[in-house]
Input
Amino acid sequence: MYLNKRVRRQLAFFSVVSVAAVGVMAIGYLDLPNMWFGAGHYRITLNLPASGGLYRNGNVTYRGVEVGRVDDVRLSPTGVDAVLSLKSDTRIPADVVAQVHSQTAVGEQFVELVPRSGSVPSLKNGDVIPEDRNTLPPDINAILTATNRGLQAIPHDDLKTAIDESYTAVGGLGPEISRIVNGTTTLAADARHNLDALTTVIDQSKPILDSQTDTSGSIQNWAANLADITGQLKTQDQALNGVLDKGPAALDEGRQLLDRFKPSLPVMLANLVSLEQVAVTYQPALEQLLVLLPPDVEMLQGSQLANRDTKQDYKGLYLSFNLNANLPPPCTTGYLPPQQVRPPSEVDYPDRPEGDMYCRVPQDSQLDVRGARNLPCLTRPGKRAPTVKMCESDEEYIPLNDGYNWKGDPNATLSGQSVPQLPPGTPAPAGAPAAPQPTPAPLAAAHYDPATGTYTGPDGRQYTQTDLSENGKPKAWQDLLSPPAP
Output
């Protein structure tokens, strides 16, 4: 038979395609190299007490992924040996448990390899998984027999009632049950993907469980206290219901009250913030005040008992009116010089002089013992200073003098610690120039003629003040203490 070139080329192409298809089918689908020569696979033996429905060519999975097939199932002196053909490119730990499962309700058993740890060598050709590390699914016949026996033991009417009640309980809950089943399936899938972590948690849970055992007494006490709380809530159920019933209305009233206070409440709270900062700074002083206040009140109340149950006609305190005038004398050191002291008759308010003016005698002086120089430094316990700046620094208080006479800046332009002054009794350094002494301002004195009421002031001008005397005689001393009436 004669075939032209075109037909011969077509037959050759068809032959090549057929040979390639058969080769792909034999190698990829039928896995003939593995079946005939074992190429790309290694074989292990699984010792089982029974077949459990396992059959040849059944799937073998590892963590849900197919890694091989059941090569053979044969009898052994102690049970059944299943030969598994596993892929060489998949590393499987040698410490695994082989579980036989049913893929569907009608059978289709497969082998699931579950690792118990990942730090052991891998399976290799010829390994054997012993019977104590294998599990078989329950016999379906035994399950059906037990189920049938259990249903026959239940009275028919009661079984019908149970089915009806079950329908009433779950009727219409299909979507919810479906979500529960889907969530459970997702949870199981995630657990399978994180099997190593879960296995590690289970293996290392002993310290946690031991800690629970060691603290069992504390847990029992906590449970007992919780039981007491729940018992109190049960006992006070009526009061609790009242709080829950009236609480929203009370909260609404409080909200309305705050709304009414809204214009002034923020200002008050802002002022309280400033007050709180001051209170925090002066916390030790406030605590000392609260400590000393009760004894002071006690002493005051005790002094009121001086004439109780006596024949005195009056009730009250025994008071002493001894006149201790000018004891001790007033302190003038550190204030304005005498020529700049304002007379009490003037009622205007000039600017405050610069600097800090206070009694600048030694801190242990009897003059003005509660003056500014003895204020305690709250942030520096044990230190006393007249200003916050001196309290916060390392500078110590230096008095101007230790006497009763005035001493300070004669021009009143420097008033404070900046006046150079050595402590009393401290010798001047050798070779140091003497500190310049300020030139005191001349005292303003004028001769007053009581007959005419005239006098000459420091500026050379003549002034008249006729209300200081009457008919050439001075008035009463009380008239000198107050200005004349307008």
